[in-house]
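Lab notebook: predicted structure, single chain.

Context: the supervisor wants predicted structures on file for every construct in the current expression panel, including those that have not yet been purified. This is the next one on the list. No modifications to the sequence; it matches the entry in the shared construct table.
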Amino acid sequence: MRNRWLVPAGAVAAVLVVAACGSSSSSSGGSGGSGGSSGSSSSSAASAPAASSGATLKTTKIGSATVLTNAKGFTVYWFVPDTSTKSNCNGSCATYWPPVPGPASAGPGVTGQLGTITRSDGSKQATWNGHPLYTYVADTAPGMAKGNGTNLSGGVWHDIVLSGSAAPAPSASSGGGGYGY
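Prediction complete. Output recorded below exactly as produced.
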């Protein structure tokens, strides 16, 4: 029973590390989005100057799938309970599933429509094809997709597969009683 607290404590430590790393991001290229509008995301937008508060989205290969990632190569996820205009992951949920800041720009190979929403705290969050975007604190290195298919924080999480087959979802039966966060 005492070991049950190790997982949340480890996750909190990971959140602090991710927050520290993510808060000092500097944009060294890429492109800027279109302010806060979710208008056209044509390839000509990829040559615009970088937006200081946004993120560049890229792709990486995980297994046989090409998935959407942030600029550091960490898998980007969408949350089933969200809508195209509202994130339903706030508070402690956003601690484990940090929102991708918006506006986002498309790196090489990124397809789909990028946009932004305004979160309940007033911050901007990037969207892809109407899905608010997040990373996952359990993905501790680029190329991981531990959050894919998990049912945590009130709903199911999916990575964004641009081509190929999705990576298999992790086993839900490892360790019993996982009630999410």
